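Q: Could you fold this chain for me?
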Amino acid sequence: MKITPSNRQAARGFTLIEVLVVIGIMGILMTVSYPSIMNTLASRNLDNSTREIQAFIQQAKHRAVDTKIVHRVRFHQPEGTYWAYEVERMEADLSVQPPTVSWVRVPQGPRKTIPSRLNVTMDFPADGSNYVVLFSPLGTVPNFNVNQNSVILQSPKLDRPGQMDERVLSIFMGGSIHYAKRKSA
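A: Sure. Below is the predicted structure, expressed as structure tokens.
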């Protein structure tokens, strides 16, 4: 039997033109969706960094209540570079007059950092070059000041009109922490 064009099976596979059209469509879709994906990633990174600070502050509050010792979260900039924070507990030396107070880093509380890609505004009471949030053994904030009770993280990648580019953690006298998203001014 002779094979003729009419009884030959159709060739299986894709032509070069079909492959190029599919790749072109995929490229267009990726190009269009890229800004949205990057915006979502920047927003998630900002949220994660803020929630990590919030959890750390709550952990310091719970330590103060559990141990019945004053604890604090100390925010500082080592050598003026990035922001770091850690938990410290108060130790008083009553054997001398007048009694002295010192702060000792809590061994189980690792030092954390805020990513340098975020803009940070500290609005806590200052202790030298440090900003601190104190927690009493009751879990309250004895150094509470109405005008100094928050940390603000802002992502430059999200700094566009109408974009929620700031995350604010406000700490209140009773020890509660409020998390909010807002647009920068």
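A (continued): The chain has a mean pLDDT of 87.
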